Structure of Endolytic murein transglycosylase:
Amino acid sequence: MSTASVAFVPQGSIAQIITYMVEKKFDLHPYADKYLLRLIGKPQAGWVNFNQEVLTRGDFLYKLSHSKAPLKVITYIPGETKEILFAELALAFELSYEKLHQEYAAATPYVEGLIVPETYYIPVGISEKHLIHFLLAHAKSYHKSVFEKIFGEFNETKWQKFIIIASIIQKEAANAEEMPLVSSVIYNRLKKDMKLQMDGTLNYGEYSHTKVTPKRIKEDTSPYNTYMHKGLPPYPVCSVSKEAIFAAIFPKTTNYLYFVKNKNGTHTFSQNYETHLENIRN
């Protein structure tokens, strides 16, 4: 039979595992293969390494029970962009950076902010398509769970807005304690119809680690430039932590409209422009 070089096997009984794999288009027989696996050994939960695309049925069932795939560890940090993640994945697993982007674009309309920042254990030999589907399946389950716990249901429109705000908070805040304060500045500025004017929105995509200069602010005409355009960017600018999501949903109640980095590496917040200028001088 033909198969991918690696495949994911869920926890469960032999019958449950066979049912799952049949649903995933593996050519297994619910009754005959269930009996054979009882003789060969129960399939291992996790990633299984098949090594080759064409196998006899016996070889396939044996590998299903005995061939754990070697794993590599990849950590995706909050505030990073998928462009940086895909570059790291392409290098670590000898995959195509361009194909990772193509598979991502084909699988979801969400440009950024969907993939969950955490540590992943990924099997060697996985294809671009299976890797993207693995990351997105986990992401959809994660975001749905977080929002259902807070709101009781998953509302896609509300989720999109909060993730955009959370991504700006993630880029701007010096630490988790500041996040609700940065969130309050965003909401206060939006309420007053002020431009956000935040550097972090220009650290989108490939510009994740690019220093935001006056020249860049003047020349970047994309909708991410909140010095040029009012309102929120059309998409999140980076991956977001749970703390940033909570801050976006539950901003601190303040009158702050400005903040500037201080000598301690955190930010000093203020309500008016005169005080803000004084804080910049200090």
In short: The longest strand covers residues 71-75. The two ends are 70 Å apart (CA to CA).
